[in-house]
Design goal:
homodimer, alpha/beta, Alkaline Phosphatase, subunit A, 2 domains, eight-stranded mixed beta sheet, 24% helix, disordered N terminus
Amino acid sequence: MHTNYTLGGILTGVLLGIYSWLSPGIDYNVTYHPKATAQLRADSRPNIVLIVADDHGREAVGCYGNTAIRTPHIDQLAADGIRFSNAFCTTASCSPSRSVLLTGLHNHTNGMYGLEHQVHHFNSFDTVRSLPVLLEQAGYRTARIGKFHVAPERTYHFQQVLKGGGTNDPASIGRSPVEMARYCYDFLKEKSDQRSDARPFFLYFASDDPHRSNTVGSDGKPIFDGSKPNVFGNRPGGYPQVGDHFYQPREVKVPTYLPDTKACRAELAQYYESVSRIDQGVGRLVDYLKEAGQYDNTLIIYLSDNGAPFPGSKTTLYEPGMRLPFIVKLPKSHKKGFVQDALISWVDVTPTLLDFAGVTNVAKQGRSFKNIIEQENVTGWDEVYASHSLHEITMYYPMRVLRERQYKLIYNVAHALPFPMALDLYNSFTWQDILRTKQNVYGKRSANAFLNRPKFELYDLQADPDEVKNLAANPKYTATLKRMQEKLKRFQQQTRDPWVSKWEFE
Amino acid sequence: MHTNYTLGGILTGVLLGIYSWLSPGIDYNVTYHPKATAQLRADSRPNIVLIVADDHGREAVGCYGNTAIRTPHIDQLAADGIRFSNAFCTTASCSPSRSVLLTGLHNHTNGMYGLEHQVHHFNSFDTVRSLPVLLEQAGYRTARIGKFHVAPERTYHFQQVLKGGGTNDPASIGRSPVEMARYCYDFLKEKSDQRSDARPFFLYFASDDPHRSNTVGSDGKPIFDGSKPNVFGNRPGGYPQVGDHFYQPREVKVPTYLPDTKACRAELAQYYESVSRIDQGVGRLVDYLKEAGQYDNTLIIYLSDNGAPFPGSKTTLYEPGMRLPFIVKLPKSHKKGFVQDALISWVDVTPTLLDFAGVTNVAKQGRSFKNIIEQENVTGWDEVYASHSLHEITMYYPMRVLRERQYKLIYNVAHALPFPMALDLYNSFTWQDILRTKQNVYGKRSANAFLNRPKFELYDLQADPDEVKNLAANPKYTATLKRMQEKLKRFQQQTRDPWVSKWEFE
C-alpha cells in the first residue's frame, strides 16, 4: 500500500491535494497545490518521525566517537542511514531552538526569543506557519508526544497530542521514552481514517531525557541542590521496560570543555544513564515502526535541541553548545552508514522535511538539504549562522555567530554583562564545585574568561578546536574579522533581526 | 435614575449581583457577590472614565505649574476635583505601564515586560484578571477607544471597541481626541441595554497625543529624521474641531532635565501643541458627559502612561519619567481643587477603581486610595515602588526603584550596559543635536552619566531634586542605602519578580 517513493514517477495525490512529480526517483521535487481538486489515491510520500532529545550533546553518542557510552539504537540508526558531522542548532536554548526546528525561521524572526514556560513567557508570532501546520495542510496526519515548550499552540498545532508528559518531573513519561514509544504505537499503525487510507504521518517525538532533573518544591519553584550530582531523571528502580545502563564516574569521557573533576565525572555518569534511556526509546520506536510495516517508508531524524546541560555547552554558542548529533534514516538509503560533512543547521530542518513531503512553495530562511544528503564532497554547504538572545527572561545575552569550516565569529552584543548562567547550570554540582574549590580553570578556559567575554570572538577551529585563542584583536586576522562581520551583519539584515540596530547603537 | 452614592444607605443591586453596603456615605465599602441572585434595580455605582495620555509629562500641564502651556480643560478637571502631587507610574514604557494600570500588578508579575507591538511582542499571562474584565463581571458596560497596546486581547477584553485609531499615524483618530470624544458619545448616553436600564459604564479613553510622530516608510518601518523637530502628530490644517494652539520656541518652559537649546525648544513647542490637542479632547469628553447627564455620577481620571518623550524622561525612572499628572474628578467632590500629596502609583489605580465599583475581593499588588482621596495629611502613603525591565525587545535595562518622600533608590540591574535609547528618542532632534554639537551636558547631567550608570543610585530628593548627586557610595548614607536595599529586595520577593535572582547572581 505504501509505494516507496524511490520507485517514483507515479502520479499520486491525497484527498487534500494533487502532487506534481517534477522528476522521478530520489531527486524528486514536488510542488504541492493545496487548492487543487482532491483525489483519493495511495500516497507515496514518506512518513516523518522527528526525534528531539533534550540537551543531548554530540560528545555523548557512541557513533560520534564516545566509546564509553552505550547508545546502540542511535548508532544503528546512523548505520542504517546518514550521520551528519557538521550539524548545528542555531540557538542553544530549548524553546527557541525548537521554534527554529519547527518553523525554518531563526528565533529572532519567529518571535520566540527565549524560553516559553513559566515567567519567561516567550512565544512566536501568530503569523508564523509551522511545520506541523503545513504538513497537516499537505495531507499528513500529525501527532506529538512529550516535551512541547513552544507557543502559541495555534501556531504549533498538531492534530493529536499523544499521552505522555512534557515536564521535567522524574515521574513524567517524558522521562520514559520506551513508554512514550508505546503510546505512539496506535498512531504509527493507523492505516485509515475518514479521509484517506494511506495518508503519511508526521510524528514529533520529544523526550525530557537527558535534561537535568528539576526538583520542584511545594511552592512550584525548582529546588536546586548543588551539593551533590544531579540525577538527570534517573530514579531507583528505573522505568518500565528500560534496561539498566549504569556508568561509573571513572569510565566516562570528560570532554575538553569540562573540568576533569570528581564532581563533573559523577554528573557525567548520571547523564550517560539518562542518554541510554532515550537511546532505548529510539530502539523501541524503531521496533514499532517495523512491526507496523512503516520503517522502510519512514524518514527518521534524531537530533537534540542544544548541547549538554553543563556550563560551557547549553546556552552558549561554543561548539559543545551548538554542534550536535544529527542522524537521518532515509526511507531508502543508498549509502548506509554514510557520514555527511555538509554544514547544516536547525533552520534547514523544516524546509527539508517539507521538501520530502512535497511542499516547496513556502518561504523559509533555511534551505532543503534533501538533495545532497547522500552526496559526497558537496559544495555550497560551508557555513551556518546562529542567533541566541535569551534563555530565561532574566538571561539577556544576545550572541550572533557565523560558523564557517575554518573560522568562527561570535558577536557578543551585551558583552559588558557577565555571561548569565541558567539557574540549573549555575546550581549544578559541576559548577558549584568550581566555586567551592575556587578554581579558575574550567575545561580549557579560565572560569573568568567564561563569564566575561569580549565583544568579538574569532577562532580558527582547525588550529584551536577548543575556541580559547581569540584572534579578533590579532592584526593578522583583521581582514577575516571584517569579512565575517560584514557577512554577519548582512545575515541579520536579511533575517530581520531586531538586534541588528546594535551595530549602530552600541 | 442615577442615585448619587454620597446619599448612601440605599440598598441597591444590579442584574448581575447584589451589593452589600457595609457603611453608608463617602466611605462605603462594597463587597460584590457575582453569583448572587440577579435583581434589576437602579445602580448607584459611579461611571468610570479613565483617560490615558501617551507620554504626557507632569511639567507640561498648566495646573502643575507650567504657565506657558494652555491646558484649560485638564486644569478645570483638577479645579473640579483633586490633583495628586505625588503620583507615579511604575514603569516608564507604554505597554508595560498600561498593563500595570489595567491589572493592579507590577509588569514583572503580569508578564508584560516590554512593548507589545511589532517585534517586541510582550504580553501578559492568560491568568491575569484585568480591570475591564472584572468590571464587566461586576455588571459594568465597558468600552475602549484609541491606543490599546496591551495583549492578549482576551486578558484585556472590553465589550466594545469604539471607532478610533490606536496607531501613531498622524492621520489616525488617536491624534484627534476631540473626534475620539465624539465617537464615545453614544456609549456615554446609552441608557439601556438588554440587561439593565441603569448599568454604569467604564470608558477607557487613550489618545496617541502627545507621543512623537512615527513616520512609517513603505516597508512598514519607522523613519526617523533627527535633523529637524518632530511634529508630535501636529499637521497642517490641524484636526476637526480642534482650536489651534501654536507655541513659539522662545515661550516654552525648558524643564531642568532637558538642555535649553534651540533644538529642544523647537521640539517642546511642537510637543505643547500636541498636549493642547489632548486637552481639548478632555474638554469635549466632559461636555458630552454633561450633555448626557452623567458628569455628576462619573469618576474621571486623567493620567499619562509615562513621562515626556525626550531623553531623560520616558524609559527612565528618574522623576521626569515616573512622576506624572494624576487628576481625579470624583462623582461628588467635597474639596474642589484639593491637592493630595499621598504617594500613589499606577499599581493602585485598578484596586481603587474596583473599590469604587464595589469589587473588593480581588487580590492585587496595589491598594485602593479611594478612602483617602480628599483627606489631608494622610499617613501610610509615603513610598512607591517602580519596576522597569525592557522597552523595545533590544532595550534590556531592568531598574528597580524605591521612592520615598525624601530618598530614592534606583537599582540598575544591568548597569554594565550603556543605557539603551529608544529609537525615537535616540533619533530625536533634541538628542541628535547634542551628538552633533558634541556637548557632554544634558540638563543637569553629563550625557555620559546619562548613558553610563552605576549599580545603585541614591538621591536625596529634597536637597537634590534633579537626582544628580549620587549618595550610594557616601559613607554617611550607608545605613539609608542598606535599609532601602533591603526593602527593595523584599518588594521584589513579595511581588514574585524574576529579577530578584540578580541580587545573588550578579
